[in-house]
Amino acid sequence: MFYRLMKMIVAPLLKIFFRPWVEGMDNIPADGPAILASNHLSFSDSFFLPALMKRRVTFIAKSEYFTGTGVKGKLTAAFFRGVGQLPVDRSGVRGAGEAAIRSGIEVIERGELFGVYPEGTRSPDGKLYRGKVGGLARIALATGAPVIPVAMIDTEKLQPPGQVKPNFGVRPGIRIGTPMDFSRYHGMENDRFILRSVTDEVMYEIMRLSGQEYVDIYATAAKRQIQDAKKQADAERRAAARQLAQKQAEEKKQAEEKKQSEDK
């Protein structure tokens, strides 16, 4: 019910205010199961991608989106439930991964579209990071469903990480690639080397579609590096400020002592 309401209200509003463009919509099958594997640049991806698809897309979302308090928390939870997002508790990493895979397989077995962000989290700087081995490849190999690479374009400019209010005037886009068939690996979903190969192949297609610079580390590691660099820079600025204040205090003291000496 809410999903249809979202399609009737949210999608037209997005089109009016942001004029998003979509290329390759014909690559989405009219029916039957498929996996949409997308890059992840912004929180707004979770609005534009499901709203602009002709078919319903079910994504996995962290459980925190469903347990918020207050008006904002309740609205966020209602939205994610309404657009078909499935909550997964990520506090236990392995258990969360297995739960996400089971949920994805169930969606595929119902003949629906399952959406996944292979990077596992939003890009901290607009670059494309290494896809995580697990959910995407295992679901594809276990079910035989085709993987459709998707590139979100400029959504990080529309709503940068940490920014709530979108930047009007930015026109985001979605570029959809041709379906990828991994049936040759069917039954090999427990082979980590195969899973890595499948994931890398999908990430290459996303890179080609998006034009992003590819960085061969995980986005979570990149976020830690950026945070550590920021902390280091902040510490250096504070140290420099302390040294400057100390120097100014010493110069003031010397000036006062000199004045007192001259007055005598």
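Next protein, fold it too.
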Amino acid sequence: MIDWIKAARLRTLPLSLSGIIMGSFIAKWRLKEDGGFWDWKIFALALLVTLLYQILSNYANDYGDGVKGTDKLRINEAEARAVASGKITAKQMKNAVILLSILSFVATVALLYVAFIPNYMNEFYIFIGLGVACILAAIGYTVGKKPYGYMGLGDIFVFVFFGLVSVCGSYFLFTKTFSWDVLLPAAAVGLLSAAVLNLNNMRDMQNDEASGKKTLALKLGYKNAMIYEMVLLQLPILLVLTFLMINQLQAQGKYYAFIVMILLFPFAGLRRKIMQIKENRELDPFLKQVGILTFMMAILTAAGLNLF
């Protein structure tokens, strides 16, 4: 059981929840302003679905990299990769991926049933397709003959699914509408998700090069990947600030909505520490830190809009 828990990589879960929290509580704020109804059951099911997607993705990555031999050369992380270390067999992990795929689909249908049935049938079927796309994307990063993670496309997929789909999709579940300004916080979460992936790929550059995994970080080279990382860590908080200013919250005397801006300081400190790293294997602790800051950004935005 402990090996399965380790393979689920619990430190990645706060990052996956950030988009749902951001989109759901922006929707709650909008509905409160308009006198609409916010359903807690949708929020609970959305959290469950995104957790299942994340664990599915982690298991699929463990299986895909394990059977391809990508993880065999790891030094600092081999113990965390269940298939490569032999703690879980490839067949067991494959069965777990199949089971998680089924559970993810069932949970997705339950979520969409509560959100859309019976008045929004077209939206129900569209989101079913979107849910299937999320499941396929979770598996396809490392699994298959042409996994997109091995072609340097992981950053794009992470930005789209962890950012745009997660935030805008959860917002739509509650409001049944799309608002262009929600793309700003959605992009913020997506960029930070890409920042975590880029750090992971920068850390593993030697291993990935030896095993033929051509990530974007490997294509850019360490120096350019570091510049890319700084951009990914700089823009998100500015995008959230732009979202708040567009909505003119300060004009209504709601300055507390800008409480999220206190994260400017820890983000600046984090960027400075990362830039000082010379040995890429020392980047590992920062993956968790970026994930926690992303989670805090979502929580503080939600609190600033709804709790004061």
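About the second fold: The chain has a mean pLDDT of 90.
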